Amino acid sequence: MTSLSTAELLAAQRNDPSFDDIWSEIVYRGLVHVSTDEVALKELLAGAPITYYCGFDPTAESLHLGNLVQLLLMRRLQLAGHRPLGLVGGSTGLIGDPRPTAERTLKSREQTAEWVQKIRVHVEKFLSAEGENGLTVVNNLDWTEPLSAIEFLRDIGKNFRVNTMLKKDAVSARLNSDAGISYTEFSYQILQGLDFRELYRSYGCVLQTGGSDQWGNLTSGTELIRRTEGVAVHAIGTPLITNSDGTKFGKSEGNAIWLDAALTSPYAFYQFWLNTDDADVIGRLKVFTFLTRAEIEELGVQVAERPFAREAQKRLAFEVTALVHGTEAAQAAIDASAALFGQGSLADLPTDVVEAAVAELPNAIVDSTTTVGQALVATGLVASLGAAKRAAAEGGVYVNNERVSDESTAIASLALASGHAILRRGKKTLAGVTVSAG
């Protein structure tokens, strides 16, 4: 397999030519949950190039899977010839988009500025800067910070109606809670509306995209432009991706799946997609890959006729991991998955991949005197030393894919050079240990 970086993958991306226009494709892919005038949008996107934008606030040091939905929608529009603006929220990040439950903790200016730069790198990674419709990245702090409080209230605030602002979902939820809402967060929608107007005035931007939970903020901009410029502009709200059982997508035990490899390793990222439920996998392929409609339909047949083969999940995991981390990292994750179950050498894997695999498994830190039996107990693969002895005697215990019949063997003698060891009981039950150097 040829190793391709994310930049090379970017250059190879194409929209599906089987669709009559880009609007039809993004609707097919489930990327439109709510929008302004659909007929007008379809016509607009089929015509001459327009300028559009999506905003990303630095609420963390990395973007996550929910943000990837927006980046891929932006990329599809760019591939259709339209001009993207990626907005990083240097000012809105200082304020905080209201959450439905509680007030955000305000970050320092220094931390916000640092995170803005990290978010900018993510945005630039997924959109091309080449050609007449190359990406332009903007920071809303550039036009917000010079505004005085009087200018903000007179020139911007007067165009917003409090009764309309109160109806926004996040605002109404907070008003009905014990936490209430501060004037700071209440004003967030005005700032986002100001962003759209500034980009309309400076770049001719006529479309904003965002999650459907941001719809109130998106329409703040369309309404401000209508009032002050006398022009109709547009917004598209993508659906909030959820699993078929209704649980929130992209959360694992309360932790987001990050796009930054330092926060979510490529191995863990790959495993997340590989574990996609059959009921969700075709929808994920539509949203998160550039596979054609024909390719996705063929994988749908595979899910229906041979679900045990998990071909759709494997293709999904590879495509998205390659998109975010490059094909080399995706292939390393595949190799690691195979090696964990005895279909390759763990010793041939890069140390960071082995570390990532151990981190994703039930694991324990042990010392050089720990036996295999004690390691099995420490990781929860067996309940007792007696059970460990029986499992080893029956031939069901493996360390780094080597069968171990004597549970009293020191685990350190079987560990990889990095000090890691993968324990396996039977064919599929895995755990990891790290032998402490101390």
Automatic annotation (TrEMBL):
Listed under catalytic activity are: tRNA(Tyr) + L-tyrosine + ATP = L-tyrosyl-tRNA(Tyr) + AMP + diphosphate + H(+)
Enzyme Commission code: 6.1.1.1
Q: Does the keyword Cytoplasm apply?
A: yes
Q: Which residues bind ATP?
A: 251
- Could you confirm whether the keyword ATP-binding appears in this record? yes
For this UniProt record, the keywords arranged alphabetically read as follows: Aminoacyl-tRNA synthetase, ATP-binding, Cytoplasm, Ligase, Nucleotide-binding, Protein biosynthesis, RNA-binding
Q: Where is this motif: 'HIGH' region?
A: 58-67
Looking at the record's lineage, which domain of life comes first?
Answer: Bacteria
Q: Which intervals of this chain are the motif 'KMSKS' region?
A: 248-252
Q: GO molecular function terms here?
A: ligase activity
Residues involved in L-tyrosine binding: 53, 188, 192
CDD domains registered for this protein in UniProt: S4 (cd00165), TyrRS_core (cd00805)
Q: Give the transmembrane region(s).
A: none
Q: Where in the cell is it found?
A: Cytoplasm
Which NCBIfam families has this protein been placed in?
tyrS
Q: What does this protein do?
A: Catalyzes the attachment of tyrosine to tRNA(Tyr) in a two-step reaction: tyrosine is first activated by ATP to form Tyr-AMP and then transferred to the acceptor end of tRNA(Tyr).
Q: What family is it from?
A: Belongs to the class-I aminoacyl-tRNA synthetase family. TyrS type 1 subfamily.
Please give the PANTHER family that the UniProt record associates with this protein: TYROSINE--TRNA LIGASE, MITOCHONDRIAL, TYROSYL-TRNA SYNTHETASE
Q: Which HAMAP family match?
A: Tyr_tRNA_synth_type1 (MF_02006)
Q: How does it assemble?
A: Homodimer.
- Name assigned to this protein: Tyrosine--tRNA ligase
Species per Swiss-Prot/TrEMBL record:
Frondihabitans cladoniiphilus
